[in-house]
Amino acid sequence: MPRPSRLAVAVVLGGLLSVSGCATVVAGTPTADPAPRPTAGRGADPVAWVDKVCGAVLTYTTPVLAQPAFEGADLPTIKQRLSDYLGASQTGLQQSRDQLGTVGASPVGGGDDTVARISSGLEKLQNDIGAAKAKVDAADPANVDAFRAALDETNTNLTQLTAPDALGDLKTSPRLDKAAQQAGNCTKLAAIPGAAPR
Predict the structure, then answer these.
(1) How far is CA 93 from CA 22, 52, 96, in A?
(2) What is the pLDDT of residues 155-179, one digit of tens each?
(3) 123 contacts 142 by C-beta, under 8 angstroms
(4) Taken in order 121, 122, 126, 132, is the CA torsion positive or negative?
(5) C-beta of residue 50 within 8 angstroms of C-beta of residue 183
(6) Residue 145: C-alpha distances to residues 153, 157, 159 (Å)
């Protein structure tokens, strides 16, 4: 007859003990459960905190990278696509800023200043894209030459915009830089062309 596994024996014994009401006295002094680790501020895990920072920055990259095709002769359609694209980018930037506002205090000195710099850069980019959208929205596709000139100017302005260098900012702190190298969202951010530190 095969021997029962240790797991099966343990389960049976556990059931018998609970049914019979056996109790075991354990020597020692009872202690309270340790307090859970904070999610932000001193004592928090730097990797988890940095992961939230990079995750917030990632939010705006999704609409920005979803650039539609602007080719074709249908100028009203091009105008609408460009306006929608810029509007979605603005929304993504606002969402990134909102998320940065919820990451909590940095567990590492200098981290709060880093978040402030990133947020300020996102705000500037959001305002610049808003100005570009206003110019596109004001352009009249019926006036072909003026419309194309407005698109060319908008394109020139957009190519001169600079996105916040979040990973570069994190590198200013060795502890945050080390944490960023272990954070999944920071790895995703680093994989985006142009997002790696300059």
Answers:
(1) 61, 15, 5
(2) 888 888 888 899 999 999 999 999 9
(3) no
(4) positive
(5) yes
(6) 12, 18, 21
Tokens found for residue 181: 């190298």
Residue reference for tokens 């985006």: 192
Q: No. of H helices and E strands in the chain? A: 8, 0
Query: CA dist 130 to 85, 89, 162, 191, Å?
Result: 11, 9, 14, 27
Name the H helices within 66-142. 75-100, 111-138
Q: Of 2-6, 60-64, 71-75, give the lowest mean pLDDT range.
A: 2-6
What are the domain boundaries of the chain? 48-190
Query: Is a pLDDT exceeding 50 seen at residue 81?
Result: yes
